[in-house]
Amino acid sequence: MIRLLSATLVLAWTLAMAALPARAQGLIRDAEIEYALRQVAAPIFRAAGLPASTRIYLIDDDQMNAFVGDARSIFIHSGLLMRLETVDQVQAVLAHEAAHIVNGHLTRRPAAARSAANVAKMGLLLGAAAAAAAGPRAGFGLAVGTASSAQRSLFAHTRAEESSADQSSLRFMAAAGADPNAALEVLEIFRGQELLSVGRQDPYARTHPLTRDRLRAVEGFAAAYPAQPRPPGAVDYWHARARGKLSAFLRAPRWTLSRVRGAQDEVAVLRRAIAHHRQADAARALAGIDSLIRARGSDPYYHELKGQFLLESGRAGAAVASYARAAELAPREGLIQAGLGRALMATGRFSEALPVLERARSRDPFDPRMLRDLATAHARLGQPGLASVAAAERYAVLGRMEDAGIHAERASAQLPRGSAGWLRAQDILAVAPRR
């Protein structure tokens, strides 16, 4: 049962409140990319003492920024991830944001506590996500949002906090085996931003102020933690896959194909297959993904991507088999379960799709596209009350609380009092605006 007033509160208003005007943004939801970021972050989080359940969310925004949402969530913009060329640089950013959590900087901002009172009016965890109709440009699950990614003033760290986070993050990096000098490389990327007009600065320069003193201090800290040679390993591999996939979906297919022409390494083949898929060249796209599956047959994310290619090419029956294999290999991935449910619905197998979508909801209850599919499956199977509950939850996730309340009232009237669905409807009604 969804609990609206839970640990996800801070994240909700983080996404819903915007101090600066910005174009519509959203979250990029993709099982493979999220898994890859977890692998990259794992040694940093262990060194920092953060739980493995700490989430990293990727925002669809070409600006370079990263920030902490709450004690269990870190946000990174796609623009920054694309700019960071090495896994150590990504770990430097994650270590710095982890340090803000560990050092208790979030709890020292009274503005956060005052703003939290407005959470109930702004929606659920992904209040900025409006991704029910994610298109082929981001076929891996782009949620198009309705507001700026964060209220920048909330994350305007003091110089003392930045110095504290710098020291802690370099200690975390050294303990994790990452090169502390990567922190300097990241700061150099942003050097000069503070000389630009406010309107031209990247948000990171405003929320993480750079000064000469800070740069010198970081240089000194880094010197105290000499880099230890680290042979390429799993984190490098997953970092390369995540960047390759993200680039292939966000950049023009012709640009991608020009960059990987003649290359036969795994990430190049992946990028080429995605580019061909986005050009509606199903034969080449499937040939590429099949070659990856032959090399790594137990990789669930390649089977999932093949399912996506097939489903978006109008071959829903074949897509079911690929998604089913992916779900078998990664049964805890809610986004993969949601894809399998979607493929089953495309073949008209609603009774089979329903339990799959319910499993997806139990793993990832804040995926609006999955909630839309779940509502449709309930409706097609003659369960209007449960369909209304799922619709209410979807609208709540999208931040459309008035619509969420309408559907929750409808569900409350149709479902047995005290049933699981009825209780879920009450959760929505507790925070929906009264009519």
TrEMBL record:
Binds 1 zinc ion per subunit. SUPFAM superfamilies: TPR-like. Residues 37-220 form the Peptidase M48 domain. It comes from Jannaschia ovalis. Its EC number is 3.4.24.-. One of its GO terms (molecular function) is metallopeptidase activity. The keyword Protease applies. PANTHER family: METALLOENDOPEPTIDASE OMA1 (PTHR22726), METALLOENDOPEPTIDASE OMA1, MITOCHONDRIAL (PTHR22726:SF1). This is M48 family metalloprotease. Belongs to the peptidase M48 family. The keyword Protease applies.
